[in-house]
Design goal:
With 139 residues, the chain is mainly β. Helix content is 0%, strand content 40%.
Length: 139
């Protein structure tokens, strides 16, 4: 999503195979709240909110954010993720990234230093090599 953008959400009940069992018509009956999984390494929240009609609205700030939401309907729940990125084009230089972790023994990249991925999902930075990344809309 872009800042200030709004998107209508839909909710469905699905079976174990992912087939739709029920389309939920009344989104006001679905409780949707920001959710940080307890095992998340990066504890971040998407800079957006879901209104009573089931529309997700991104904040107007030009700051990237990402996070998860939990939807609960009649005791059943599901998790979805989203992100807000500044209006395009934008660039990220990773200069603020701190290389502070090391892949463990046995990992394909064992011994290589890296930084935890940034919350807006641009990926990890490793070996002290910083990349410049520029996004342009392609859809």
């Amino acid at each position: 999503m872009e800042p200030s953008e709004s998107v209508g959400l839909r909710a469905r009940l699905i079976d174990a195979n992912g087939a739709t069992v029920q389309e939920i018509a009344d989104m006001s009956s679905v409780d949707i709240k920001a959710f940080i999984p307890p095992t998340a390494r990066v504890k971040s929240q998407m800079n957006a909110a879901v209104d009573k009609d089931g529309r997700m609205v991104a904040a107007s700030t030009q700051e990237p954010s990402a996070g998860a939401f939990r939807a609960v309907y009649q005791g059943k729940s599901g998790i979805f993720r989203g992100r807000v990125l500044p209006a395009l084009p934008f660039s990220e230089d990773f200069e603020s990234s701190v290389i502070s972790e090391k892949y463990p023994d046995g990992h394909i990249h064992q011994g290589i230093d890296f930084a935890t991925p940034r919350c807006h999902g641009l990926g990890p930075v490793s070996n002290g090599i910083f990349a410049r990344w520029k996004a342009t809309r392609s859809w």
